[in-house]
Design goal:
83% of the residues lie in helices and 0% in strands. With 64 residues, the chain is an all-alpha fold.
Length: 64
């Protein structure tokens, strides 16, 4: 599967899940994210930096 196809599939899956998820679940998840922002950011960067393909997206110039 090409990168474009993977991206299109990701977007389609994300939109489908968003439509299927109730407002109360979205609000609960939003609250949890706000309460644990620092830990989630640490986990995100740890996992991104461990992945060769994903690491390229964390170039300082791109992030800034």
């Amino acid at each position: 599967m090409s990168k474009s196809n993977k991206s299109d599939q990701f977007v389609a899956d994300w939109q489908r899940l968003s439509q299927e998820t109730s407002l109360s679940v979205k609000q609960t998840v939003g609250t949890l994210i706000q309460q644990h922002t620092g830990d989630l950011a640490d986990m995100f960067y740890k996992n991104m930096l461990a992945n060769d393909e994903a690491r390229s997206f964390l170039d300082n110039d791109i992030v800034n």
